[in-house]
Write a structure and sequence with these properties.
This protein is an alpha/beta fold and 646 residues long. The chain is built from 22 helices and 20 strands. The model is unreliable at 1-44 and 438-449 (pLDDT under 50).
């Protein structure tokens, strides 16, 4: 046992810290227990909220019915640790020797938080921690263990399963991870055995998106209270939502194993100067008066970029990562709680086990497909605090066609709904309005689908730009390729080419038709006419050449012949691709329009349509797969009271 200095003992907080770290197992235990007991005498008896008592009664009723492995679904800020501590005394042992309790958690903060609550609630019980270099004896009344440490080496062997009446699991959506399952097996909780202790798991997001079934460890959910209900009942802080569209294109960001976005790819898309500035400017415009803003980023690189952007705009923003030393992290959190600086940036550190009630603004700077993650992030700002009336959630929404989950989707709204300081009741009213059909959000069409090759060649939208530059009858035959037809099959092809430096140039080629009696090939080798840096220059140069070498009546799109009826040959050529009941008639099309359509066919329209059609079908298949995957994820994320599938 290390010696205790007078300075160390003078701090009551430090003595409490010694208590929960297990130092009381030696000679100093009377001193520390006496202080702990004195401290708890000043505490009033805990007055449970109605739903907390209701939850405890649900657990006890299930236990009385013979169930052993139970789940509680409670929103962040509902007081799950209070329920934990109450269950320790409420659940009676099956035998005189089975009177110990084990609490499992996966984060240091959760372990320390549970230890503090237990030490205060049970001053006469022996409370120990099994975590890192802190080793519990295995015989304490209450042991709080990190799941990593209890599975390290043979540390779990000192815990005799026969002496435990209760195993509590915090953030129990992790309970089917291998380390948890190994621990449950040690206590005979991997199967339904009569002599095993009672298992109770608590989580605010009692579901998984990776396909692992919680039913492998928990038999039934006995109680569920959603955060929306708790806000309505005033047990959680009021929340207002604002969504800001950043225009970040996440359509090509891949999926990780858990179904959410691939972290590195997502970071490259959202961690840009433009998106970071939109984020900071949005906060300055909408929430700069907030005193404690927590920002969720994608990764460390995103933290750096966004923190630096806050600094450029004169905002004192600081950050915490998983690599931040514990002492430094504690100092930063204490300073943030004391409102010494307004913005704290993190990635993945504060999604679970964070108790900072003064948070009055959340910036969701990372898009997600996971409802669980979204709820976890929002939940950080829902705790009640005397100095705040509500928490402002600013959701930086990226592109909306990739199964993204946003704050509107939590209320059954379309993700494209843009909100401005909308309360929970506003969102519910908006949902009701949408369901009754009073108004519908505008849908944007950003691409054209062609049902047939005829639709493709009949579309004139591609010619609008080039014909605003030129008076000649240019025809677009590809995304960056245009044709101007000359006499006897001769034509000019203008196309955009990419250079090695990823810049563009426009090149014009002339392909001359050869007389049939002079050559086996119908065309001469293409001849380069010019190249230019802009389309306008390339068109003007090509027009000048065509005006000097081709008959004006052939290339000008303002000739009278173009408005006349099509020839029989033109109709016969075009009707070959149309069904028997869908043939073109002379009154359906002009001669000029027919000429343009034939030009498109001769220059690859069939191949282009096949490519577009294959791409469309591929996108449709991908969209269907994404929708099916999203449905599966949504089903997994639903929480209902009742049995779980194994």
């Amino acid at each position: 046992m290390p010696p205790l200095s007078a300075q160390w003992l003078s701090s009551k907080a430090s003595i409490c810290r010694l208590l929960v770290k297990g130092y009381h197992r030696t000679k100093v235990s009377p001193l520390i227990r006496t202080y702990a007991s004195d401290a708890t005498r000043t505490l009033q008896k805990i007055s449970l909220r109605d739903y907390q008592e209701e939850c405890i009664q649900s657990v006890l009723a299930s236990v009385n019915n013979g169930h052993k492995r139970l789940g509680i679904s409670l929103a962040t800020g509902a007081g799950k640790t209070i329920i934990f501590t109450q269950l320790i005394d409420r659940i009676k042992p099956d035998s005189d020797e089975a009177n110990q309790t084990l609490i499992l958690a996966h984060r240091r903060e959760l372990v320390e938080q549970a230890a503090r609550h237990c030490a205060n609630a049970y001053p006469l019980k022996k409370v120990e921690i099994e975590m890192g270099n802190m080793h519990a004896s295995g015989s304490a009344d209450i042991t709080i263990a990190s799941i990593q440490s209890i599975n390290s080496g043979e540390r779990i062997e000192k815990f005799n399963p026969d002496r435990f009446k209760l195993v509590l699991v915090d953030e129990a959506h992790h309970i089917v991870a291998p380390q948890y399952l190994r621990t449950l097996e040690h206590f005979s909780l991997d199967t339904k055995q009569e002599d095993s202790p009672i298992l109770v798991g608590v989580s605010a997001t009692f579901s998984r998106t990776d396909g692992l079934r919680l039913g492998a460890a928990i038999d039934e959910i006995v109680y569920h209270k959603d955060y929306v209900d708790m806000i309505g009942d005033k047990w959680l802080s009021d929340v207002i939502f604002t969504t800001v569209e950043t225009k970040a294109d996440i359509s090509k960001v891949g999926s990780a194993a858990n179904g959410d976005f691939h972290t590195r790819e997502l970071s490259r898309v959202v961690n840009t100067k433009q998106v970071n500035e939109v984020t900071v400017r949005s906060w300055l415009a909408k929430a700069s008066g907030r005193k404690s803003t927590l920002v969720f980023c994608v990764d460390l690189s995103h933290i750096d970029g966004l923190t630096e952007t806050f600094h450029r705009f004169g905002v004192d923003a600081r950050f915490v990562t998983g690599e931040t030393p514990n002492v430094e992290r504690s100092k930063l959190i204490d300073a943030f709680k004391n409102r010494e600086f307004p913005v704290l940036v993190n990635c993945g550190v504060f999604t679970e086990g964070t108790d900072i009630p003064n948070i009055d603004c959340i910036i969701l700077a990372r898009p997600t497909r996971s409802r669980n993650l979204l709820v976890q992030m929002i939940g950080r700002g829902m705790r009640l605090h005397p100095d705040k009336t509500d928490c402002h959630i600013i959701d930086m929404v990226a592109s909306l066609s990739t199964g993204i989950v946003t704050t509107p989707t939590l209320f059954g709204l379309d993700p494209s709904e843009l909100l401005e300081k909308a309360s929970v009741s506003d969102m519910q009213r908006l949902k009701s309005t949408r369901e009754t059909g009073e108004s519908q959000p505008a849908r944007k069409v950003t691409f054209v689908d062609y049902d047939s090759v005829f639709d493709l060649i009949a579309d004139t939208s591609g010619e609008r730009h080039i014909r605003s530059i030129s008076q000649h009858a240019w025809v677009q035959v590809g995304p960056t390729k245009w044709i101007l037809s000359g006499p006897s099959g001769t034509f000019i092809r203008l196309e955009r080419e990419s250079t090695e430096l990823d810049t563009h140039k426009f090149v014009a080629w002339e392909t001359r038709a050869l007389p049939k009696d002079l050559s086996k090939s119908p065309f001469a080798k293409p001849r380069k006419l010019l190249q230019a840096h802009t389309l306008i220059d390339a068109v003007h140069g090509s027009d000048k050449y065509a005006s000097e070498h081709y008959p004006h009546y052939l290339i000008s799109r303002y000739q009278n012949w173009r408005n006349g009826p099509p020839t029989d040959n033109q109709l016969e050529f075009l009707n070959k691709m149309r069904g028997e009941g869908d043939k073109l008639k002379p009154e359906d099309i002009t001669k000029g329009k027919a000429a343009d359509m034939i030009t498109k066919l001769r220059h690859g329209a069939r191949g282009r349509f096949a490519t577009l059609d294959a791409d469309r079908k591929r996108k449709e298949r991908k969209q269907i797969m994404a929708q099916e995957k999203e449905k599966v994820i949504q089903e997994r994320e639903k929480v209902v009271v009742g049995p779980l599938l194994a």
